[in-house]
Structure formats: structure tokens, C-alpha cells
Design brief:
By secondary structure, this protein is mainly alpha-helical. Helices cover 64% and strands 6% of the residues. The protein is elongated, with a radius of gyration of 47 Å.
Amino acid sequence: MANRTVKDAHSVKGTNPQYLVEKIIRTRIYESRYWKEECFALTAELMVDKAMELKYIGGVFGGNIKPTPFLCLVLKMLQIQPEKDIVVEFIKNEDFKYVRALGAVYMRLVGTSLDCFKYLEPLYNDYRKLRRQNKAGAYEIVHMDEFIDELLREERVCDIILPRIQKRNVLEDTNQLEQRISALDEDIEDMESSEEEEVIEPHRSPTPERKRGSHKDNDKSYRSPSPRSRRNRSRSPHRRDRKSPVRRRSRSRSRERRHRSPVQRHREDDRKKRNKKTKRDHKERSRDDDRHRDRGRDRDRDRDDKRDRDTDHHRDRGHRSGGGGRESTKEMEIREANEVRARLGLAPLRP
């Protein structure tokens, strides 16, 4: 008894309103805890309080097909079939976005094609975020205008197969709907007009020098070629063909440079400066590395020369003393001690 549709309910699309939800999903909703505890004996007035408590939208989730509270309330609205004025107030509610989403889904299920376009298209200007639970049980973010677009274009939303509605152009041809004007049309037109002005501005007024050059070119084109030039042309017919690719290439590059936007030119100049700076830094770094390498090489060479001089000096002193290594070492110690005593102002030691 608790799952039956009310007695005075009207059939929707030629069938019971609850049959718009598939039987498997409908059975899962009847068996869910939220339906038994929260949706029992709900009326149209109490439905508003339950809709205000919603925190996300969605259909079914999990491996055992659990319904979301949003889907349970949709089925409850199909069961009790509230009046159209209440549903319109749901859609016009701006304080609670999930109440608006609930009213939009119900209107899409039971409303006519004209009512769907009339009441849902104004919601394209609502860009608030909605939290939606997918089939895996995870949450994702969608916007209200995206959700409304899915209701008007997709075949299945929140795991409910939506009834078919007429195309908008058919309703426009029969004068049942006026042509839709988007709020972004004016901004798009302003952007296009500004882009056209930027493209036309460089070619609008040529400079006096360019004008003079154009008159000269016109005079040259009207003059007849001289006999010498005719002779040259007849002698070398491929001369101009050899030079033409270079000229064409340079002209095409200049045209590309001229037709680039200021932002592209600025980026290209920055890229060139960056490349020059990196090349300069690389050269300076390589120069510093060479300098450090040369210094280390000179330092090693000086150290080796000093070691060779010291060994030669000790060898010469040992040969000169002729008394062997022990005496030469003693003389060296005495000499070093005498040098230290001389710095301190003391008398030298005698050998």
C-alpha cells in the first residue's frame, strides 16, 4: 500500500508515473532504508523539507545497486504527483540548488516538450556547482547548466530513461517557441568586432612613402621597356626565375611578420633574446672553464718545477759536502735554524 501511486494521479506518457523508473531500480528503492524511514507518508508540503536536506544528486551506486536519496525523492514525487505550481516553485528556487535540480528532473519526466523548454532553458544562466555521486560511489563536480543540458539532450540521466521530447527547431517552426537568444551572444559579437578591427587597422591607411612608391610603380608599369632590357630578357630567359624564389621567400616572411599579432611578435622577440642570452652565457661559461683549467695546469707545472729545483739543490749540497747524507741533513738544519735566529736578531749557531 505504501508504494502505490495515489488514486487521483493522472497517467504520464500513457502509463503509471512510477513506471517511468525501471522496475529493477524501482524495487531497489522500495527496499532501501531511506525510502522506508524518510519517504514514508510524505506529502507535497513535507517534500520541500526533505529536498532542502539533500547534499548531492545521483542515481544508483555500488555493486548491489543502492539508490541515492535524490533518486528516492524523484520516485516519491512521481508517486504523490504534486501540482504543477509546486514543481514550478521548486525550479524557481534560487536559495537551494538541489531543490531546483529535483524540480527540473521531475518536470523533464512528466512535462510536455513545451514546458520542458519553457521552464528549464532559463536555468542555463545558473552556473553553480553540484555534487554528483557516480556509479562507483565517488563524488564529482558538475555545474547546474551542464546538468540542465544533459536533461534536454541526453537519453538517460541519474539512471532514469528520459521520455522523448520534440526538437526545439520543430517547436520554433510551428511558432510555439520563440528563437532562443543566449546571454553570451553580445559578448561574442563584441569580441568578433574587436578582432576584425585589429586585422583591418594595419591595412586601413598607407603611409605617404608607400603612396609615392605605388605611384612610381604604376608609372613604371605603364612605361615600355627599353631595347637593352628586351635584349637582356631574350638572352637570359631563366634569369628572373633564378632570383624569384629568394624574393618570394623574403616577401612571404615579411608578410608573415606583418600579419602577426603584437603578442606573437613580442613572444618571438623574447624567444630570440633568450636564445642570445643562453648562447652568451654558454660562451662565458666555457671561457671561464678554460681559464680555470689553464690556471690549474700552470699551478701544477710550478709545483713540479719547485720540487725539481729542491731535489737538485739537495743533491748538489750533498755532493759538495762529500760527507754523506747524515752530514748534509745536519748542515741543512743548522742553516734553517740560523735563518730563524737571524730574523729574531740572535747570534747564529756554529757548525
